[in-house]
Amino acid sequence: MGVRMAGARTPYPEAARELLRQTLFGAARDELGRRAWSEITMSDIAAAAGVSRQTLYKEFGTRNEFGLALVIHEGERFLDDVDAAVRQHLDDPRAAIGAALELFLRTAGEDPLIRILLSDDGTGGLLPFVTTQGMPVVQWATARLATTIEAGWPQAPQADVLLLSESLVRLAISYITAPTEAPDTTARAVADLLGPFIDRALGTTK
To answer: How far is CA 140 from the centre of its chain?
Structure first.
């Protein structure tokens, strides 16, 4: 059992592991700024992070598992912003969904790593983590968004919350990978489309 220091919330071994993971993610992000994921080996990431390859494999398992963890780690930053946007519009669920989706599409579209992912022509290796191999990402993001919606509208039926969350996640991924309009236009259209369901599920009327 780790020793908990006075005032500390995280035991040292857990904090050390989190620091290791953040270092490895940062190293991978830096490597992706120079070349495609398909060209980056686990040895490259370990060397850039200043750890052994065995340490990297022990923490994440396979290269694909690390790639998936990296995508989810980067997605966490965006969903933190989504959570904040939703909480600013608790009195208007449609506005909350629209604002959250617009913020997500805008910030994701401006992020360097997401741009790299979207520029993948099928050979870069990262895009499948959110498309053809994207179920773990969809499941994670759905659960994360459902937690936000449940906190804002606790009266909403769980089944409706999960359906709304998964629909929004799948739409967001689709619009990120193949945008057709500006983020604000897309967000308004989605909020209007899902509006009646949002009103019913979250207990509001328009």
So the answer is: 8
